[in-house]
Design goal:
Layout: E1 2-5, E2 17-20, E3 27-31, E4 39-44, E5 52-56, E6 60-64, E7 68-72, E8 76-79, E9 87-94, E10 97-104, E11 112-113
Parallel strand pairs: 1-3, 2-6, 3-7, 4-8, 7-11
Antiparallel strand pairs: 4-5, 5-6, 9-10, 10-11
């Protein structure tokens, strides 16, 4: 698991960030600032399974071969489905936490928990 902590600002250079998982059980966890500007948008890649990006107010973080994404301490979190043919499933794995998974369709995307 890789945790990016945005609580005290941007932890990486202006050039951006790419996390390359190696398959298995890689998770990208992003901790927001919990402020009014605390927005995150998760966009899975439209053609490659388990690839995508997370956009905050100031930065875009890309990932490859990641099996799950967790967004914490954001005021708002958005999810952009990779295609119209994607069938989504929403559940609550724990109290106060929602998870979006790919019930059917391709490409498969890393489930996101918020």
């Amino acid at each position: 698991m890789l945790t990016l902590d945005l609580v005290n600002g941007n932890p990486f250079a202006n050039a951006g960030f790419v996390f390359r998982g190696q398959g298995g059980n890689d998770q990208l966890k992003v901790l927001g600032r919990g402020t009014i500007r605390g927005n995150a948008m998760y966009t899975p890649n439209r053609t490659t399974s388990n690839w995508g990006s997370i956009r905050t107010v100031t930065r875009e973080m890309n990932f490859e071969d990641v099996e799950s994404v967790r967004l914490e301490n954001f005021t708002n979190a958005s999810f952009i489905a990779p295609s119209d043919a994607t069938t989504l499933s929403l559940d609550m794995p724990e109290t106060g936490v929602g998870r979006v998974t790919n019930a059917a369709g391709t490409p498969q995307f890393a489930p996101v928990t918020v």
